[in-house]
Structures are given as structure tokens and as C-alpha cells.
Amino acid sequence: MIQSSPPRFALLVFTALIMLWTALLSMPFSSRTGEITPLADALFTAVSAICVTGLSTLDMSTHWSFIGEILILGGIQIGGIGVLTLASILGLTVTRRLGLRQRLLAASDTNPMRMGKGVSESQAVGLGEIGGLLAAVATSLIVIELLLTALILPTLLGAGYGFWHALWNSFYLAASAFTNTGFVPLQGGLEPLVDNYFFLSVIAIGVFLGAIGFPVIFALYRYVIGRGWRTHKRLGLHTKLTLGTTLILVVFGWLAISALEWNNARTLGSQDLGQTLFNSGYMSIMTRSGGLGIVDPAEMNGSTLLVIDMLMFVGGGSASTAGGIKVTTLAVLFLAAYAEARGYQDMQAFDRRIPNEVLRVAVSVFIWGVTIVLVSAVALMHMTGKPLDTVLFEVISAFGTCGLSTGLSESLPDAGKYVLAATMWAGRVGTVTLAAAVAATSRSRMFRLPEERPIVG
Questions:
Q1: Rounded to two decimals, what is the model's pTM?
Q2: How many domains are there within the chain?
Q3: In whole angstroms, what is the distance from residue 83 CA to residue 16 CA?
Q4: Considering the domain boundaries, does residue 270 fall inside one?
């Protein structure tokens, strides 16, 4: 299965890890009270950790023991890196070499379209660069999380935490931010620190770096560090599309949230201009998939919730710790619409042509994403009787592995928890990987049917 269908192998390992974490989290040693955690809650937490979502049906600061917190932290690290990428890193560490099979395995984790036949090597990261990418994944994970920990630690020490307690929680928050998970181990959440702009800025930077994706971090490293003595003097199309689209969405969300919540006294309306602009910008970054919110979505206007729904549905960059349909998918769809409007036969961006097969995958990802969200929303609305805006927000947050919540997750019945857990699983596995696993083999026909065009539009 590893050789014939890495996507199916990834699904199998991913699901097996969730089952293992569910069993471990349900054990008495994982809870602070020493009692068995109910199956629905243990499964929901395991899926939320492995899928780096951050939604929870339990109080993360009081329910879990130290062992439980270690399990959750390990889960979000595994989920953030990716199953196949982690396996390739471990294999490279043990064998000190990276063969073609391992390169293809890691390449399919960063780009499932590589599993097709006759795939062009005009990729964001070539097979010859996979070793460097894996090294960049491991290095960036360690370096960025340690830097974030060092920056967060003084804040928690100043808040009155003991050194070891502050160090553990700082690393927990750093990992939660960089992997875009959104779990908060502090009692009271981030509420006591909402006025500490330095702390919130560090968290926002960690979320942003995790959301742009490891290939983009790798490309930026090569561009900045290797500019003087290597040939990597040009940023690739994937990097430009990811950074450009991400910045556009962050600015759009910043302006939209601040404008729509300007007069809402329950959220930003009671704050001064500086606080309003900072908090709205911070919340816009959290919609990338961060989930470490400082404004209660349940108090927001319905119009604001809809804007955040759209941003969470898009998510972050491909091969990142973020979820959603990914910013490059949105960019390709808009480029296709622009090319059609201008009468171009090919999609173009930054003096490069994008093949039509990328558009087919983008359309498939979008349609599958919409389908998953609609099915889950209908099921939860029927189970809970809650209004559409509340249910849709929770479902898209789960699909986009974001973690922002209106509080619906905590009040769900067991059946609703299973539905939302399945939504998180589908969102993290990725619609492209899911489609590649279902249709692992490409079939060729020796004939073509007669052409007939339906009316569209």
C-alpha cells in the first residue's frame, strides 16, 4: 500500500493514530481526577489534536492531567508535521539517506497531485529538493517553536506562574500557535492576557508562519540565505500566490471585522481606535486556522460571522499546518475566472502558465469542501435545533481546523460530537488526499465518446 497508494496509507495511519490517542486519552491516568474520560469526549479531543483543530468539548485547563497534556501536545506535533512527512524524516534520520521511494512518499504528502501518472516536475518543490524540504520542516518546527517559547515565557512569568509551570505552558502555547491548533492550557484561556499586545503579537506571528506552509518557509529560506552563493534567486509561483493571497485575505478580514464590529458594544465597540484595529487584525490572522481568539464569536454580529466563515473555509497555505481548501485553491479559481473573462486559453500569474489539471483539482477541492460543510451543517442543525449562523460557524471552524467556537461544541450530544469529529478529520486529511485515496489508480480508455455541450450559466 505504501508503494501503490501513499494517500491510502496516510489515511490508514492517520486514522490509526486517532484511535490510539482516543484509547490513551480515555484512560484514568490522562484525566486530572483519575476518572475515565467518556468515549465521545476522548475521541473528539484526539481528532481535534491530531487534526490540529483546537475545538474541545472539555475544559483544557482543568480536565487533563500532565500525562494527558503530553499526549495532546504530541498529537498536535504529529498532526502539524504530517504523517508521511514525519515518516520520511524518521527514515532519513535512521538511514542517513533518502531514496526515490522515500522522496515520492514525502512529495505526495506536500502535493497529492504527484500521485497521478505522467506528472510534470515543474512543481513548487522538485524531487531533488525533497531532502532539503524535510530538513526545513524539522528545523523550522524546532527553531520557531523554541523562539516562540522564549518570547512567551517572560509574559507568563510576569503573570505570576512558577518557572517550570510557565516554561511548560509557554512551549504548549508556542506549539499550539505554530501548528495552528488553538488549544490553550491556561485557566481562563487568553482572557487575562488580552491587553498584552506583545504576547498576542508573538502568538499571531507563530500562527502566520505555520499557516503559510513548509514549502513557502523553505523557499524563503533559500531566497534569503542562499541569495549570494546559490542559484535560488527567484521565488516560485506557489510562494508568490500563497503569500500574496494570504496577505490580501488578512487585510480583507482586518478591515471587514473592524468595520462590522465597530459599533458592537459586546465586542469591539467599547474599545478605543488602537485596540479595535489591533484586535480585529489579530482575529483576522486567527481565521487562517489559528483559533486562539480573544473575541467571543457568540457575541459577534451575524454579518461578521459570515465573513469569518468565508476566511476559515479558505484556511491557510498548502502543505501547512492550517486547514481549509487552501489559499492557492482560491487563487487558482480566481485566475481561471479572470482568464475566461479576458478570453485567455491559459491561466497566467507572475509570468507563468498554470496547467488546466491544477484547475480541475481546485474545482474538485472546492466542491468537496462545500459538500462536507453542507452535510455536516444539516446534520447538526437537525440534532441541536440551533440557528444556521451558529451551526455553520462551528462546522466551518471544524472543517478548516480553525478552532474558533461559539460554544456549540461543548453542548453537543454524543452524536453531534461524532459528526463534528468526522468533519475535522475530513478537513485535515484534505479533500485532494481524500479524493486521491478513493481513486488511487488512474484508468485509461482506448476510446473517446462523441462530444455534446450542455448549456451552462
A1: 0.85
A2: 1
A3: 11
A4: yes
- Tell me the β-bridge partners of 347: 354
* pLDDT the model gives residue 4: 56
- pLDDT per residue over 402-449, tens digit each? 989 988 988 899 999 999 999 998 888 766 566 555 544 455 667 788
Q: Which of 17, 93, 86 is nearest to 49 (CA)?
A: 17
Query: Which residues are CB-neighbours of 395 under 8 A, at least 6 positions away?
Result: 373, 376, 377, 380, 420, 423
Residues spanned by the domain of 63: 6-119+127-441
Domain membership of residue 449 (yes or no) is no
* Burial group, residue 35, by CB count within 10 angstroms (0-12, 13-18, 19+): exposed
Pairing of strands 352-354, 347-349: antiparallel
HSE (CB half, 13 Å, CA atoms) of 143? 8
Neighbours of 441 (CB within 10 A): 8
Is there a domain that residue 416 lies in? yes
Helices (H), 82-196: 83-95, 100-110, 130-158, 163-178
Nearest to 409 by CA among 183, 73, 155, 78: 183
pLDDT of residue 124: 46
Angle at which helices 237-260 and 273-286 cross, to 10° = 140
Where does residue 313 rank: exposed (0-12), middle (13-18), buried (19+ CB within 10 A)?
Answer: buried
State how far the Cα of 215 lies from the Cα of 129, in Å rounded to an integer.
Answer: 10
How far, CA to CA in Å, does 77 sit from each of 17, 221, 333? 12, 22, 31
- CA 168 centroid distance within chain: 23
Helix (H) or strand (E) holding 338: helix 327-342
Q: What is the DSSP letter of 380?
A: H
Q: Is residue 446 part of a domain?
A: no
Instruction: Write the pLDDT tens digit of every residue in 83-130.
Output: 555 544 444 444 444 444 444 444 444 455 444 444 444 444 444 455
Q: Which residue has the cell 509574559?
A: 155
- 3-class state of residue 200 by DSSP: helix
